[in-house]
């Protein structure tokens, strides 16, 4: 375990139009772990994620990436810093007018001046890593929902990031595709040695992939611990959250989930 967390929040606060969304968030995400932030709709999960990559700036508190203070880095500073991150958006956020190839190549063209042959090889590697070899020529409209998500992941790893952020990666997917995305998160974390941060309310996903979890409620982290401790906790805030989810994963099932390929 690194002495310096990959990402650290200390007392982070954010207000939108007079409404507090983050009310003093403290967390430390270790290098190489998969850390999941749980919470209901409107709890501030995605807002946390956007602070990690500089899409939002904190009103108060401090944010560090690999020990560097990025709280008020500014857009110019974040252009370079974001190369360390890959972001998988909730809707996959593919460019509908571009082919799969051009979608995955997009961040490489934006940030590097690689020759086309090198770009082509990197796109091939990324699609192969997510189990989608040979789909370069397809348009996003020709893909299933699960395939679109996986293309989004391929694009996120194109610049070989140290940290991958997943914003509700299983939203809108059927159970089989949700499990496929969970296995993919595990595979990439193991194969690439990345730090993964997952924002979700999907209990099956969080138990399948997480090293540690935190429950965000009313803008604060109210429970934090290992995946095993969350399965056994009687903490009232966590029990309230579990009782409000439609399909929490029983401990016996959760414990059988293991790394697998896509």
Would you give an account of this structure?
This protein has one domain: 3-Layer(aba) Sandwich (Rossmann fold). The protein is of the alpha/beta class. It has helices at 45-52, 74-81, 100-111, 116-129, 145-156, 175-192, 203-209, 227-232, 236-244, 251-254, and strands at residues 7-16, 19-29, 34-38, 60-65, 68-69, 85-88, 163-167, 195-200, 212-217, 220-226. It is globular.
Task: Evaluate the radius of gyration.
Answer: 18 Å
Spans of at least 5 consecutive residues with low confidence:
246-262
Termini distance?
28 Å
CATH architecture: 3-Layer(aba) Sandwich
Q: Biggest sheet: strands side by side, in what order?
A: 6-7-8-3-9-10
Mean pLDDT: 86
Helix content: 25-40%
Beta-strand fraction estimate: 15-25%
Structural class: alpha/beta
Give the biggest sheet.
Answer: 6 strands, mixed
In DSSP terms (H or I, runs of 4 or more residues), the helix count works out at: 10
Query: What's the name of the CATH homologous superfamily?
Result: P-loop containing nucleotide triphosphate hydrolases
CATH fold naming: Rossmann fold
What is the molecular shape?
globular
CATH class term:
Alpha Beta
The count of DSSP E runs of length 2 or more, i.e. the number of strands, is: 10
The ordered string of helix (H) and strand (E) elements is: EEEHEEHEHHHEHEHEEHHH
Number of domains: 1
């Amino acid at each position: 375990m690194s002495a310096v967390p990959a990402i650290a929040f200390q007392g982070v606060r954010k207000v939108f139009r007079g409404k507090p969304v983050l009310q003093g968030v403290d967390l430390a995400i270790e290098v190489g772990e998969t850390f999941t932030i749980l919470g209901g709709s409107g709890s501030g999960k995605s807002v946390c994620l956007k602070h990690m990559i500089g899409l939002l700036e904190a009103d108060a508190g401090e944010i560090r990436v690999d020990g560097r203070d990025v709280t008020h880095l500014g857009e110019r500073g974040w252009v370079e810093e974001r190369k360390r991150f890959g972001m998988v958006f909730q809707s996959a956020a593919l460019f509908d007018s571009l082919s799969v190839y051009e979608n995955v190549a997009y961040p490489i063209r934006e940030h590097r001046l690689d020759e086309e042959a090198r770009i082509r090889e990197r796109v091939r590697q990324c699609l192969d890593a997510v189990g989608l070899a040979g789909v370069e020529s397809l348009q996003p409209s020709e893909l299933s929902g699960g395939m679109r998500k996986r293309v989004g992941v391929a694009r996120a790893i194109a610049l070989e990031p140290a940290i991958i952020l997943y914003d509700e990666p299983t939203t809108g997917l059927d159970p089989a595709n949700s499990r496929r995305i969970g296995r993919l998160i595990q595979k990439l974390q193991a194969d690439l040695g990345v730090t993964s941060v997952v924002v979700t309310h999907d209990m099956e996903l969080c138990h399948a992939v997480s090293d540690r979890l935190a429950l965000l409620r009313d803008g604060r982290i109210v429970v934090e611990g290992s995946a095993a401790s969350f399965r056994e906790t009687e903490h009232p805030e966590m029990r309230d959250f579990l009782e409000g989810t439609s399909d929490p994963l029983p401990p016996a099932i959760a414990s059988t989930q293991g790394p697998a390929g896509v």
